[in-house]
Amino acid sequence: MGFSLRNFSSHNAFLLNSLFIVLIISLIFSVDHIHAAIVKSGSCDFYQGSWVLDESYPLYDTSRCPFIPEGFNCVANGRPNNDYLKYRWSPTGCDAPKFDGQEFVKRFKGKKIMFVGDSISNNQWVSFTCMIYAANPNAKFTTFYSEEMSSVSSVNFTDPEYDVSILFNFKPFLVELEETPERVLKIDTISTGDVWKEVDVVIFNTWHWWFHTGRLQHWDKIQEGDKTYPDIDDRMAAFAKGLTTWSTWVDRNIDPKKTQVFYQGISPSHMRGKEWGFPNTTCADHTTPFNGTTYPGAPEPGVAVPKEALSKMSTPVTLLDVTTMSKLRKDAHPSHYANKDGTSRDCSHWCLAGVPDTWNRILYASIVPESGNLSFGP
């Protein structure tokens, strides 16, 4: 996307200058729009802060949430140290609206909220359903789970006074991945997005699967237009191409008067302790967050890519810029406790209760900004 300047002749110089000025102004406006979507409560940025111990945490009893799969249920899988459950995110210099699950189901009666993306989106979806259920423990619900790539799973709170559906669409690249007869990643195609247009709030995410290699790579070929090739050496460029396809689709298909659109920022992993000054360790060797507000390692690669894509969009999209706060939580991954036999090595997903609960508190603050209850406490 963007303007091509190659074919302008000299008599079009005035037009070129005018177009350039309009482009710069529009980009500045778009970047400001994204920043305004991040900043709440005056000049306070919810995404800058530190993790503090709070004995009133966690926000819900994991054993009483019926939606948590084995991979996220670190308590049930025998994790002996539960301090990771006791940390609350404290934004620097301000508070944020508290998550009010009862108020949420009242406001969103008859509506649908959908998380779209990879297993990190699934992590956040499960967290959201647990938080809603903890606030409404007597609510009736139905569930539907699907293992198919293009299908939608859901938790539906069916009481007449609630009637809220929380859905998850497993779409790890957002663009199309056809799996028969070969696995072909169609980097410039979205053909199954109609379901996204039918919801009231949609939260998109994609990142980790773009960088899987070897046996973890999920495609045999990449298709772009009428060309196919085995791979793209520059995976960051592939990620950017995919997000360009997604952002173009959203601009052409989503009605912002009907649907609020969010993009979940990059969720970091903590596989290699040498990246933050602890060689020969992984997340499994750490039981406390980093102190303070600064991550001691290198910035997360790729953070600029979704921000760039969002800056060019005409559709209002709120960025859930969760990377920095999540990088500080080296202690909060399932590690060996993503299964009961202790054979897991998961430093990518998050234990529940845990970090995604904070993402959802900020999501709630963005969906219901006029809640007026300024407290990030329990």
Describe this structure in words.
This protein is of the alpha/beta class. Helix content is 25%, strand content 17%. The chain has a 7-stranded mixed sheet, with helices on both faces. Strands 9-10-12-13 form a 4-stranded mixed sheet, with no helix packed on it. A hairpin with a 7-residue loop joins strand 6 and strand 7. Helix 2 crosses helix 3 and helix 4 (235-253) runs parallel beside helix 5 (304-311). The radius of gyration is 21 Å and the shape is globular. The relative contact order is 0.19. Residues 1-41 and 371-378 have low confidence and may be disordered.
Walk me through the topology:
Blueprint: H1 13-38, E1 39-40, E2 44-45, E3 49-53, E4 87-91, H2 101-107, E5 112-117, H3 119-135, E6 141-144, E7 152-157, E8 164-170, E9 176-178, E10 184-186, E11 201-204, E12 221-224, E13 227-229, H4 235-253, E14 260-264, H5 304-311, E15 317-320, H6 323-327, H7 355-367
Parallel strand pairs: 5-8, 5-11, 10-12, 11-14, 14-15
Antiparallel strand pairs: 1-2, 3-4, 6-7, 7-8, 9-10, 12-13
Helix pairs in contact: 1-5, 2-3, 3-7, 4-5
Family: Belongs to the PC-esterase family. TBL subfamily.
Protein name: Trichome birefringence-like N-terminal domain-containing protein
Organism: Papaver atlanticum
